[in-house]
Design brief:
By secondary structure, this protein is mainly alpha-helical. It has 2 domains: 45 residues; 243 residues, no CATH class. The chain has 14 helices and 4 strands.
């Protein structure tokens, strides 16, 4: 529904033509219908196979699918929370123009800083903490020509480290470990099923006609015992694709956009700039001290 709403909104804004919009809707509708048909065909063909799959493997497959869905939903919720907070933080400077070349040399004026502080004061929760960190790195500096303005004294990547900002919403290290956990659980279920089948195999020396019993149960359901491992591998691949290509990528891009926007607004006062100004000031004072003596 959200995709359809987005497509119609863009069509209204004339980003897409109506013909292109109808084509996109038809494409997604046909793709979804084709996928459902394939699912139903696969279920129909697997009816006979399900009878040979041990109950423990069937239960393990259901648990793996449910676990993957729950973890994927949680991952997308964390992604949404991160992007929403990025948008709120960037929105505080939405009406603020980027610093001009003159402002990058002389700093932001008191009027512009007052407007920024007024807008940033409306932030809440995490964005408010981010702003406090930036506020603590803002200093007033007077250049050699007497202009006084506000500068950032540290790069934004140091003020708002990527791991601190992202990890407060999106637990990337845990999501990266999920495919390994799913694969391990799938293999565990397979080995448990094989162990249970082997436990039912026995050898009786006194029975010359059928000394080995239970071997039929082991062989007949052997292929089904690997189903949990296959399902786990498929879920791991799908989860990795969503984690790398959708969630993690968008969260990283959102953080980069936030750092870029604040870097456009606030000029950075580097140590090299301060040292150069100190050197120039010392040269000017030495010239002033020498000039009276020459006269």
């Amino acid at each position: 529904m959200s995709f359809l709403r987005k497509v119609f909104d863009r069509a209204v804004e004339h980003e897409y033509g109506w013909a292109s919009t109808l084509f996109r809707l038809a494409f997604w509708w046909i793709s979804a219908s084709f996928a459902l048909i394939l699912v139903f065909l696969a279920i129909y063909r697997m009816k006979g196979l399900l009878s040979t799959i041990p109950p423990v493997i069937q239960a393990a497959c259901l648990i793996l699918v449910a676990m993957a869905l729950v973890l994927m939903v949680a991952m997308f919720r964390e992604r949404r929370r991160a992007l929403e907070n990025y948008d709120r933080f960037i929105g505080a400077l939405r009406d603020i123009k980027p610093a001009s070349e003159a402002e990058r040399m002389s700093g932001l004026s008191e009027e512009k800083m007052a407007g920024i502080r007024r807008k940033a004061g409306l932030l809440t929760n995490r964005p408010r903490e981010w702003w406090k960190n930036i506020e603590g790195s803002l200093e007033r500096y007077t250049s050699l020509n007497g202009d006084e303005g506000w500068f950032l004294t540290r790069p934004l990547a140091e003020i708002l480290p990527e791991e601190d900002v992202i990890d407060s919403f999106y637990h990337s290290s845990f999501h990266q470990a999920v495919p390994g956990i799913l694969t391990a659980l799938g293999l565990l279920a397979t080995f448990v099923a094989i162990l249970m089948a082997l436990a039912g195999v026995s050898y009786n020396v006194r029975d010359p006609i059928r000394p080995v019993s239970g071997i039929d149960q082991l062989i007949n359901g052997l292929s089904g015992k690997f189903l949990s491992s296959i399902i786990a591998l498929i879920l791991s691949v799908v989860f990795t694709l969503f984690e790398k290509k959708v969630c993690d990528l968008q969260v990283q891009n959102g953080y980069a956009a936030m750092i870029k926007r604040y870097g456009e607004v606030f000029p950075l006062l580097t140590q090299s700039r301060i040292l150069i100004d100190i050197q120039r000031l010392a040269m000017l004072r030495s010239r002033e001290a020498i000039s009276p003596g020459q006269g």
